[in-house]
Design goal:
Elements lengths: L1 E4 L2 E6 L2 E5 L6 E2 L3 E2 L16 E3 L10 H5 L7 E3 L4 H6 L5 E3 L5 E4 L2 E6 L18 E5 L3 E4 L8 H8 L4 E5 L15 H11 L3 E5 L13 H12 L14 E4 L5 E4 L12
Parallel strand pairs: 3-6, 6-7, 7-8, 12-13, 13-14
Antiparallel strand pairs: 1-2, 2-3, 4-5, 9-10, 10-11, 11-12, 15-16
Helix pairs in contact: 4-5
């Protein structure tokens, strides 16, 4: 699993390349500019077999990025986004509600609940939001964007999660925690999920709230030490990766994107 910045991730599993919430653009709607370097250019990605969308907010569903990806690539998304994805020139749109699954090859993706808020203003006030569980040789939980909620314990009891991708930014002012996790929430969510490892996402790229851009990682490290979960937290710079070994252990990969530019492994 390669972290591509903000909430975007490339998941390589059972011979498939899966792209989650791809946002490989330098800005959001030309007024929120990326504060970190792009990890990879779209043309340098390996062939993508499946795209996952968690919800319709502009920092997670980026039309310019999607339009540069092959139109025939299947896209899994929650209800309410079919028209938006048609605008993104996508022909194979798979709408999944909570607990519904889709299988491609040897990989099964299940839509799971999230605690967020709907809409893609101004034209789509009501759209869905989900997380994804990706099962193959390993199991990855991609929260997309969510506050912490009791249902994470159910997800953790239903699946043996190897890697949980959990958001840690956009928590200030405190009212934002109704829809987003703080770093402390993400550490608790890792415990609830019983995940072997967690990778923080939704940090460092765009200023979406009041906390300083560097604060989420500082608080995450401190919360991990307080909960004695530091060994599970894998902080990745954009372009770096973790790998699940044959023994089930999660290892950090030091060479950034060495495999992605070369295509399929």
């Amino acid at each position: 699993m390669t972290f591509l910045g903000h909430s975007s991730a490339l998941i390589e599993m059972n011979g498939l390349n899966i792209l989650a919430d791809p946002h490989l653009n330098r800005h959001i709607l030309f007024f929120l500019w990326r504060r970190s370097k792009l990890a990879i250019r779209i043309r340098d990605l390996p062939p993508i077999d499946l795209i996952l969308i968690s919800h319709g907010h502009y920092d997670h569903l980026d039309l310019p990025t999607l339009r540069k990806l092959p139109r025939e690539t299947p896209v899994i998304a929650p209800p309410g986004l079919r028209t938006v994805l048609k605008w993104a020139k996508k022909d194979h749109i798979i709408i999944r509600r909570r607990w519904e699954s889709y299988t491609l090859g040897e990989v099964t993706v299940t839509a799971v609940p999230a605690k967020h808020f709907s809409g893609r203003p101004p034209l789509f006030p009501v759209t869905g939001y989900i997380g994804h569980v990706i099962e193959g040789d390993a199991t990855v939980y991609f929260a997309g964007d969510s506050a912490i909620f009791d249902g994470m314990s159910k997800i953790g009891s239903k699946w043996n999660v190897d890697v949980a991708l959990l958001p840690i930014g956009a928590y200030d002012p405190p009212s934002f925690r109704r829809h987003h996790m703080s770093p402390e929430d993400a550490v608790e969510a890792c415990r609830m999920l019983q995940a072997k490892a967690m990778v923080p996402i939704h940090w460092g790229a765009f200023r979406l709230s009041l906390e300083p851009l560097a604060e989420p990682l500082t608080r995450l490290r401190l919360a991990g030490r307080r909960k004695d979960l530091s060994s599970k937290i894998k902080i990745l710079e954009p372009g770096h990766a973790v790998s699940v070994g044959g023994d089930g252990a999660v290892h950090q990969v030091e060479t950034p994107l060495s495999h992605a530019a070369s295509g399929r492994r």
